[in-house]
From TrEMBL, chains A, B:
This is glutathione transferase. It catalyses: RX + glutathione = an S-substituted glutathione + a halide anion + H(+). InterPro entries: Glutathione-S-Trfase_C-like, Glutathione-S-Trfase_C_sf, Glutathione_S-Trfase, Glutathione_S-Trfase_N, GST_C, GST_C_Theta, GST_N_Theta, GST_Theta. The lineage of its organism: Eukaryota, Metazoa, Ecdysozoa, Arthropoda, Hexapoda. GO terms for biological process: glutathione metabolic process. Its EC number is 2.5.1.18. Residues 3-85 form the GST N-terminal domain. Signal peptide: none annotated.
Length: 234, 234
C-alpha cells in the first residue's frame, strides 16, 4: 500500500489517544508526528496552513488529503482501510447507536470532563486561581453525566458496551475521555462499579496500546490514589 | 412503505429546524410531534422513558427504534430512505469533509452561538442578570468563530458550500445554527458578505421549508433590524 498516513497527536489530548489506539489495533501503518499542545505547536500559522486549519489535534494527513476531528477520521479509516468490523459495524442500527453517542458526547461527557480538567488542573499551572464554588459546580455536572453513563448508557451493567455486545469506537472515545478526569484528581469509578468494569475491559481489550497512550496520564495521576483500572469482582 | 417516523422537535431548537427541513426536502413522510422546550416537556420522566433517554430534541421514533442527535439521524435516514445524494454524498472525501464539519461544530459554532443566545436572550426571560463583561467576552468568541467560517470554511467566497459545489447536511446544520444568533440581536452577516450570500442561498434552496421552520425566529427578530436574509450583489 503506497498510502502514508501521518498522525498528528499529543497524548495529553483524549481523542489523540483514542485515535492512536484505533490505528494501532487495526494495524493501519502510520507515521507518528507528535505535536506539543503545551508549546502551542497546534496554533502556529504553519500548522494551520499545512496540517489542520482548525488548529487542533488529532488530525491526519494522507498525501494531499487533510482531515481533522477524530469522529470523522474513524469513519474515513473504516471506509478506506481494512478494519475489524466491530469498531464501526455496517449494521444500520448499531451504526446509528454509535453515531448517536459520538455526537452526544461533544457537549456532554467531553465538555464536562474538559471543563473540570481545565479549571482544576490546568488553571493552577497557568497561575490562575481555582474558584472553589465553580469547582463544586463543575464537579456536580461531571457527577451527573457520569451517573447517566453508568445508569443509562451502561444500563447499570446490563449492557457490556455502548452499542451492544462488542467494543466500538464509541467505547474507545469514551474511555480515553473519562481517563482525563483522573489527572485532575477526580475518580470516575468511585461509586460506579459498572463504569469501573467497563473501563477495565476497554483497557484489557486494547492493550498494550491503551497503556502506551495513557503513560502520561498514569504518571500525572500517581500523586492521587489511582492506579490503572482493573476489573473488580462483581 | 409501512414505516412511520415520528419527529419530536421544537422550532426554537436549531437542529430541530435543520432536521425538519431535511425530512421535508427529501419527501420522507413523518408525523409531527411538537415538544415545548419552554415547558420542559423534553425533561419529563415519560419523555425520557418513551422517547429519548437523553432528554433532548430533535429525535425520532420509528416503531421500536429511537434515535437522538440530528447528526446521527441524518446519517441513518440517508442509509434507510431514498434521499438526494448531494445531502450526504457517498464519495469518501466529501463525506469525510461533511463529517469533519459536523463533528467540529458542536464545541465551536454551536457552543458559541448557544452561549451567546442563552446569556443575552434567555437569561433576562428567566429573571437573571446579563453580565456586560461576560456578554462582551461571548460576543468576541462568536465573532471569531464566524470570521473563521467566512474566511476558512467559505474561503472568502471561493467555496460555495461547506463541502464542495453542492448543498449538504453540513450547510443545513450550520445555517439553522447561525440564524439563532439573530434572536439575541447579533447580526452574523454584518461585515461577512460571503456568509450573507451563502446563508441566502441555503434559504433559497430549501424554501418554503426554511421559512416555515424559521417563522418563530423571524418573529423574535423583528424587534431587531433583521429581515430574512437575501443575496446581495457582489
Amino acid at each position: 500500500m503506497a498510502r502514508n498516513i501521518k498522525l498528528y497527536y499529543d497524548f495529553m489530548s483524549q481523542p489523540s489517544r483514542a485515535l492512536y489506539i484505533f490505528l494501532s489495533m487495526n494495524k493501519i501503518p502510520f507515521e507518528r508526528c507528535p505535536i506539543s499542545l503545551q508549546n502551542f505547536e497546534h496554533k502556529t500559522v504553519e500548522f494551520r496552513k499545512n496540517v489542520n486549519r482548525y488548529g487542533k489535534v488529532p488530525c491526519i494527513v494522507e498525501q494531499n488529503f487533510r482531515l481533522a476531528e477524530s469522529v470523522a477520521i474513524y469513519r474515513y479509516l473504516c471506509r478506506a482501510y481494512p478494519t475489524q468490523l466491530h469498531w464501526y459495524p455496517d449494521d444500520t442500527i448499531r451504526q446509528a447507536r454509535i453515531d448517536e453517542y459520538l455526537s452526544w458526547q461533544h457537549l456532554n461527557l467531553r465538555a464536562h470532563v474538559s471543563l473540570y480538567f481545565f479549571h482544576v488542573w490546568l488553571n493552577p499551572l497557568l497561575g490562575k486561581e481555582v474558584d472553589v464554588k465553580k469547582t463544586e459546580r463543575l464537579r456536580l455536572r461531571l457527577d451527573e453525566v457520569l451517573d447517566f453513563f453508568e445508569q443509562e448508557l451502561l444500563c447499570n451493567g446490563r449492557q457490556s458496551f455502548l452499542a451492544g455486545d462488542h467494543i466500538s469506537v464509541a467505547d474507545l472515545s469514551a474511555a480515553c475521555e473519562i481517563e482525563q478526569a483522573k489527572i485532575a484528581g477526580y475518580d470516575p469509578c468511585e461509586g460506579r462499579p459498572h463504569l469501573n468494569n467497563w473501563l477495565a475491559t476497554i483497557r484489557e481489550k486494547t492493550n498494550p496500546f491503551y497503556d502506551e497512550a495513557h503513560k502520561y496520564v498514569y504518571q500525572l495521576t500517581t500523586e492521587h490514589i489511582f492506579t490503572p483500572v482493573v476489573k473488580e469482582d462483581e
